[in-house]
TrEMBL record:
Start and end residues of each Rv3660c-like CheY-like N-terminal domain: 7-112
Classification lineage: Bacteria, Bacillati, Actinomycetota, Actinomycetes, Propionibacteriales
InterPro entries, sorted: P-loop_NTPase, ParA/MinD_ATPase, Rv3660c, Rv3660c_N
Protein name listed in UniProt: Septum site determining protein
Gene Ontology molecular functions: ATP binding; ATP hydrolysis activity
Length: 336
């Protein structure tokens, strides 16, 4: 049973039940709170009508997440009852039905968010975008995965993966939306193939709308086991976006110029936990790379033969076996 609705109010019933039906979730409706208590802990979402909020509070049900009081123009007494039953919010149905529709769309989704892994180049041309695509390709064969393009000047992740003609919502469409975005709605709307969803741009004129990214990232993590964020190495919001990642992979060539640039980037990020170096070919040792940047080396990725041809054929970076496949396979357990 997905939703428990406790109300005897026809006006509440007329709003909530159709929203449940539209979201495709089942609802148990009861006007007798005492009889519905066995379902209190089992429901994914509990909605208590203002008409029964006091009666529910008198029963002192066990505290649990996912409880909301719903009403038309709630008064102070409703808010007091909501506090007593440990409700997360009091929702005015006259203005908050869109929020409720989004919350219902998330019913049945994960209770805890998936992993967000950021990938950024410590130096220009290090191959961070290619590694981000490889990580997402590898994981998508095993669990729901979303690859998010946060680099407006990059090549476009859909092009690297041969997905530019796959229908779905791009950044331009999300910027025009407002309010909370459901995890299921996001997962089902972005371009997706073989379990991999990609969020990128459709045109040449690109701008990363950071408020939109802040809004959709929690939904992305609720709807996917892994979210891979391809970050631009420059920009005023890099530090903030890196902080929103559970793990950060900094890709850099093992050369003195590359590591010098990487050290400057790491200093700007001011992050010393949950971050690691992915080294590309060069003459500097792992120990020296760690000494210069302050980050541990978590992988070394050699040049991959046939990479350009695989990308040109629309196969993505894992279109041919090689170092990227091994890195994608080995890095994710480290990140997790």
């Amino acid at each position: 049973m997905a939703v428990l609705l406790l109300t005897g109010s026809p006006s509440v019933h007329e709003v909530v039940v159709p929203l449940c039906a539209a979201a495709g979730v089942g609802a148990e409706v009861s006007s007798t709170p005492a009889l519905a208590l066995p379902a209190w802990a089992e429901a994914d979402l509990v909605l208590v009508g203002a008409d029964l909020a006091t009666a529910v509070a008198d029963l002192a049900p066990p505290r649990r997440p996912g409880v909301h009081v719903v009403a038309h123009a709630p008064d102070d007494a409703v808010f007091r009852s909501a506090l007593e039953i440990g409700a997360s919010s009091v929702l005015d149905l006259s203005s908050g039905s869109a929020w409720l529709a989004d919350a219902l769309a998330d019913v049945g989704e994960r209770a805890s968010p998936g992993r967000v892994v950021g990938v950024v180049g410590g130096a220009g041309g290090a191959g961070a975008t290619t590694l981000a695509c490889a990580l997402a390709q590898w994981q998508s064969g095993r669990t729901p995965t979303l690859l998010v393009d946060a680099d407006p000047l990059g090549p476009g992740l859909d092009r690297l993966l041969g997905m530019e003609d796959v229908a779905g919502v791009r950044w331009e469409g999300l910027v025009d939306t407002a309010g909370r975005l459901g995890a299921r709605a996001l997962r089902e709307s972005v371009p997706r193939t073989n379990g991999l969803g990609v969020l990128t741009w459709s045109g040449l004129r690109r701008r990363l709308d950071v408020p939109t990214l802040r809004r959709i990232l929690p939904s992305a993590a609720r709807g996917h086991d892994l979210v891979v964020l391809d970050l631009a190495r420059q920009g005023p919001h890099l530090s903030e976006l890196a902080d929103r990642c559970d793990d950060l992979l900094v890709v850099t060539p093992a050369t003195l110029p590359g590591l010098a640039a990487t050290a400057r980037l790491v200093a700007e990020l001011r992050r010393d936990t949950g971050a690691g170096l992915v080294l590309r070919p060069g003459s500097v040792s792992d120990a020296d790379a760690t000494h210069v940047t302050g980050l541990p080396v978590v992988a070394a990725v050699a040049d991959q033969r046939g990479l350009a041809a695989a990308v040109d054929r629309g196969l993505g970076p894992l279109g041919s076996r090689g170092p990227l496949l091994r890195a994608a396979r080995d890095l994710l357990p480290v990140a997790a």
